[in-house]
Amino acid sequence: MQDNSLTIALSKGRIFEETLPLLAAAGIVPAEAPEQSRKLIIETNHPEIRLVIVRASDVPTYVQYGAADFGIAGKDVLIEHGGEGLYQPLDLQIAKCRMMVAVPKGFDYAAASKPGCRLRVATKYPDIAAEHFAAKGVHVDIIKLYGSMELAPLVGLSDAIVDLVSTGGTLKANNLEAVEHIVDISSRLVVNKAALKTKYELIEPIIEAFAGVVANGK
Ligand code: PRT
Ligand code: MG
C-alpha cells in the first residue's frame, strides 16, 4: 500500500514562527504551537501530515535518515552537517543572519589575524571557523562550545568567537564587536532524497507553494 503520510521536522522558536506562513500557503495548519505544548509530535489539519519538533541542529539528521520526509534548517547547521542524503531545493529566505568573527572591543584583530599568527577561537561551528581561518593563513585553536559563545572572550577562554549575528544586540550587550563577515545565513528546505521519489505527488505541491511565497517576498 502507498504511504500517504508526511512528517515534517522543524525546530521551535524563530524557524517555527517564520515557517507558519509557508505552511499556510501549502494549506497546512498545525493543531498547536510547540511553545505552548510539550508535545514533540504535533498534528495538523491534515490527518496524514504531522510535525516533529527537534533541536535546530538535529533537523538534517532526522531528514537524512528518513525519520522526517522534509524539514527546514539554517545554512549554518547544514554546512556543519555536510548535507549527506539531503536534497536542498529552496532557500526560504527566513531566519536570516550573518556568520561573523567577533572580538572584545579594543582587541587589535588586524594585528592578531595576520598570516602566520595563532588565534584561539570559540565557536559552535568548528568546520566553518576552521575553513575561514585556513583561507586567511591564520592558525587557530578551535574551542567547541554549544552556546553562549559571547562569554568565552570575556573570561579568557578565547581571543575571538565565530557566531551568528542578527541585530548585533547580543555582541553590544557583552562589549564585543564584529570584525569580519564570513557568510550570509538563511534557512533552507531539506528533503529526504528517497522520500522525494516515493512521495513526489505529496511533496512537490508543498515545494511549489513554498517557492511561491519566497518569490512573492522578493
Ligand atoms: O537555541 P538552541 O540551542 O536550541 O538551537 P539554535 O540556537 O541552533 O536554534 P535557534 O532556534 O536559536 O536558531 C535556529 C536557526 O536560526 C539557526 O540555525 C540560524 O540559522 C538562525 N538564526 C537567525 C539564528 C539567529 N538568527 C541568531 N541571531 N540563530 C541564532 N542566533 C543567536 C546567535 O547565536 C547569538 O547568540 O542570537 C544571538 C545574536 O542575535 P542578535 O540579534 O543579538 O545579533
Ligand atoms: Mg538559539
TrEMBL record:
Enzyme superclass (EC): transferase
Signal peptide (residue range): none
Keyword Zinc appears in the UniProt entry: no
Annotated TM spans: none
Pathway(s) served: Amino-acid biosynthesis; L-histidine biosynthesis; L-histidine from 5-phospho-alpha-D-ribose 1-diphosphate: step 1/9
Keywords: Amino-acid biosynthesis, ATP-binding, Cytoplasm, Glycosyltransferase, Histidine biosynthesis, Nucleotide-binding, Transferase
A Pfam family per the record: HisG
Residue runs in coiled coils: none
ATP phosphoribosyltransferase catalytic domain mapped to chain residues: 55-210
Reactions the enzyme catalyzes: 1-(5-phospho-beta-D-ribosyl)-ATP + diphosphate = 5-phospho-alpha-D-ribose 1-diphosphate + ATP
Family (UniProt): Belongs to the ATP phosphoribosyltransferase family. Short subfamily.
Function: Catalyzes the condensation of ATP and 5-phosphoribose 1-diphosphate to form N'-(5'-phosphoribosyl)-ATP (PR-ATP). Has a crucial role in the pathway because the rate of histidine biosynthesis seems to be controlled primarily by regulation of HisG enzymatic activity.
Oligomer and partners: Heteromultimer composed of HisG and HisZ subunits.
Name of the protein described by the UniProt record: ATP phosphoribosyltransferase
Organism of this sequence: Neisseria canis
